[in-house]
Every structure is written in C-alpha cells, then in structure tokens.
Automatic annotation (TrEMBL):
GO molecular function, one term: DNA-binding transcription factor activity
Superkingdom as given in the UniProt entry: Eukaryota
InterPro entries for this protein: bZIP_sf
Stated name of the protein: BZIP domain-containing protein
Amino acid sequence: MARDKLRFRILLVSFSYVAEDLARVRNNQRRCRQRKRDHVAELEHELASIKEATSREILGLRSLTDSLRHENERITALLDLCGIDHKMSMVSRQAEYDDNVIGDICRDPALLMDETSLVGPEKDTPMGQISQLCYCPSKGSSSVSFEDHLKDSNCLPIPPQVAPISASFYDPGTDVLETILRNEVSEDKYEDTTVCAVALELVMSCNTKNLSILDLDMRLRSGYRSARFQWEGCRVDNQVLFAVLAEIT
C-alpha cells in the first residue's frame, strides 16, 4: 500500500508539471498569434496610408498635367493666331541645348587637351573618298552664330589670322578638303590640323546619323591637339576629322 501511494503521488506531481508546461505552451502560442495579428494590422494600416497618399499625389499630378496641357493648347493657339510655327520654337530650343553642350565642352580644358584617351580605332580615309564628303548644313547653323557663341563662352578667342568662314563653306557642292585647306593653308605649322570650332561645326552639320554632340566629341577627342600659342585655342588632326566625317555621313 505504501508503494502504491508513493507511485500515485509521483504520478500526480508529474501530471501537474505536464499540465503547467501545456498551459505555458498554450499561453506562448496565444501571445505569438496576438503579436502576429497586431503586426498584420499595423502593416495593413501603413499600406492604407500609403495608398491614400499615393492616390492624392496621383490626383495632384493629373490635375497639374491637365492644367499644363490646357496651357500648352492656349499657347499653341496664340502662336497660330500670331502666325508663328510652334515647331520652329522647339527646334530653336534644341539648338540652344546643343549650344550649351558645346559651351560645356569648350569650358573643360581637360576634355579638349586630352590626347591620350582614344575611343575606338582610328580609321584612315582614302584620299579618293575625301572629295566625296560634302558639307551638309543644318537648318539653324551659321558661322556667325557659332563664332559669337565661342566668344560668349570661356573658350579661347579665334585667332585673327584665320579668315571668317565664307558663304561657299556651306555650299553642299564644296569639297571638304578644299575648304579646310583654304582656311588652314596659310598656317604652315598647322596645315594638317583644323581649328576645333570649325571642326565641331563641320561634323555637326554633316551629322546625318543624328548623333549627339557628346558622341561627336568622343569621336574627335583622339584628334585633339594643343596649339603652340594660347590664343589659338585647340585644334583637330585632319586625319581624325576626315575619319569622323566618313563615319557620320
């Protein structure tokens, strides 16, 4: 009997421990589920707030877009009444952007004087093909405006020995080689180079592939040469210039 009572007490104690463990596990599980529910509710609240803010921003952007569209229509109608082609205004803005890019290129001396950087292999253009390269003027380009732009920028001034670009320079039937030699043959020491301003204007006008100003500059960069005198500015090797012209025309 004593042994049976002892076993019974041991079983009771064991059951009590097991019951306590089970109760503790259930409480832990209940608290864990509650934390998950609270976290999900918090995420749902944040998501709802983000959706509301996004909806307000979208509505604001739509209203702004509508107002800008209406304003654009009014301006277009006003330009039509005044007899002004609004498409030409877009072209002039693009030309202004190109001039700004050219100014950035001219203001960076490291970009103009870097002779070590080489983008792609140099291409030798046969002399027989040089005469076939024609100068293709763009609609908004002129030698006077380009020279004025260089004077307004921080570039070095064009040397007085270089004659101004004549009207025949923009003639599509004029050979590029003859034109460049006519402007540069008086400079015996630099007869194989061209002034950077003339070279940039030349490649931009013959840019039939519609490459950007930076792409054209990257192609000419291997031919940049520093001038002997500071007032002359930079120059471009004619061989590189002809190779670029052959590539973009």
